[in-house]
Each structure stands twice: as structure tokens, then as C-alpha cells.
Amino acid sequence: MIDSIIAFIYYITIVVISIHVVPWIFKELTMGICRCKGTLKGKVVLITGGNNGIGFETSLELVRRGAKLIIGCRNTQNVEHRICNLVPGADVEVHKLDLSSNKSIRAFADEIKSKYDSIDILVNNAGMVNKENKRSEDGHELVMATNYLGHALLNHLLMDLVKRAGQMGTDCSRIILVSSLASGEKKAANHLCSFNSSKKNYDINFENGSVKDLGSDDFGGQYGKSKLAQIMYGKHLAQILKDENCNTLVASLHPGFVRTDIFQGLPAGPNLKFIMWAGY
Q1: Cα–Cα distance between 124 and 127 in angstroms, integer?
Q2: 48 and which of 13, 126, 140, 162 could share a cystine (Cβ 3.0–4.6 Å)?
Q3: Using an 8 Å Cβ cutoff, are 95 and 74 in contact?
Q4: pLDDT in tens, 82-104
């Protein structure tokens, strides 16, 4: 009897340790490793939300590869200093940009167009999750405004510069949309885009919804909706540019599961604790 109890405790201990240790080892050996040796010298790259999290790490890698980097973000304090401390000689400039504000987006785009004739790579990286149902100053739901609508406007305002970069060089210019697997929730998809039988077309709904509507909590579900809208927009934009014979590539990506400040927008509780633990 004692031997059985000891054996049971032993195997339970092994399982618990494995659940923690094996994923951590796998993450350390595989995640965040870019083996590409390509250079970005002579390229102008613009990234939104490059001041922290995934955006900051991406910014570091871009300047390490020699890119002229433009960062648009809400909090500009010490961003350039932090990057130059880690990558001495980095060619980077930082501008104020609030993607939930049409006024801020237009001012940012005007400033960029006054200084640059072309943009080789435009990275739509900035994103947020919000634990409160808030609206932007333009009246849109805040998560949708920041993650999708603001980027769509920014791309539109800078599109001529991106197209020009593709026309000038042998490489295609690029618009990169940092998306998420959260876009795959079926209920959130149906809530975003539902068929209207009387009109014989689809109704688009950018507003928040209930757990029943979104298949997730209001905050995570709305985040998934915004990322799905972003992917659908990307596919449509890619087709438009192809039809115009532009030398511009549009790509969406899932960055993997990364523990960043974006989780501060989630409600406190056991779900958040689990997510933060899994992020290690």
C-alpha cells in the first residue's frame, strides 16, 4: 500500500514538472529565433507600436539589419534612447501616433510624407485589448478603432509612398499586418460579418458583443473580431494591389504566444494569471 502511494506521488510529481518544464524548454529553444541573414540597408521601414513588447523587439532587429526605422506610437518617451543603447548607431526616429484618433493619424501621415518619398516596409503592429467598453474620440469602439480602423486609414494615407518604393526597386515593397490566431473564433466571425437575407448581402458589425455572441469574454472576443477584420482587409488590399500591377506584397502573420504589456488590458482574475504563466 505504501509503495503504491509513493509510486502515485512520484508519477504525479513527474507530470506536474513536465507540464511546466517541457514547454518552457521548447519555448527557449525555438521561440524568438530569426535565422534569416538578410540586410535592410537602404530600406525605410515604418512600424506602429514599436515602443514596447513585440514591436520593440521587432524594432531592435530592424535597426540591427541596417534599416532606417520610423516608429509611430502613443508613448514616445525614451524610445529612441532605449533602442540606441541596445543598438549603437541605430538610425531611428520616433513620432507621436494614436491609432484610435483620425486626427492623430492624419497629422502623423502628413509629417511622414513631408520627409520621405517612399516607404519600403510598413508594419501594422500596434494593438490593444481593453477591459472596458470604451469609444474613441471619433465614436468607434476603442479596440476595433486601434487594431483595425486606424491602421486601415494609415495605410491608405501612406499607400503612395509604399507603392513608389515597389516601383523604384527590384524588391517588392511590403505591408505587414501583425494579426493573431484569436481571429479564428467562429462566433466572433459571425458577429463581425452576418448575412442579411432580405438585402442579399452582409452586415458588418464593429461593435462589442456578449460572451454568447463572441464565443469568448467581451474583451478577448472583440480583440479577435478586430484581428479577423484586419486579415479580411489584408486579403482585399492584396487583391486591389495585384489588380493595379503594383510591386507590393501584403502579408498577415501570427506572432506566436508572447507575454507582453497587451495583457494588462485583460480583466484581473484566474484567466489572466494563467495567460501570464503560459507566457513564460
Answers
A1: 9
A2: 126
A3: no
A4: 999 999 999 999 999 999 999 99
Q: Tell me the average pLDDT of the chain.
A: 84
Q: Provide the grid cell at 208.
A: 462589442
Residues 6+ apart with CB under 8 A from 120: 40, 43, 44, 45, 162, 165, 169, 171, 173, 174
Under 8 Å between Cβ of 219 and 266? yes
Is 13 within 8 Å of 5 (Cβ atoms)?
no
- Active-site entry in 11, 223, 233, 280: 223
pLDDT (0 to 100) of residue 187: 73
Q: How far apart are CA 51 and CA 126, in angstroms?
A: 9
**Helix segments in the chain, DSSP class H:** 2-30, 53-64, 79-86, 102-115, 142-144, 150-168, 186-192, 211-214, 218-243, 270-278
The residue whose grid cell reads 501570427 is: 254
Residue 223 among the catalytic residues:
yes
Cell of residue 10, nine digits: 512520484
Calculate the CA dihedral of residues 83, 84, 90, 95 and round it to 10 degrees.
60
> Is there a contact between 45 and 121 (Cβ–Cβ < 8 Å)?
yes
Q: How far apart are CA 131 and CA 249, in angstroms?
A: 34
**Global pTM value:** 0.80
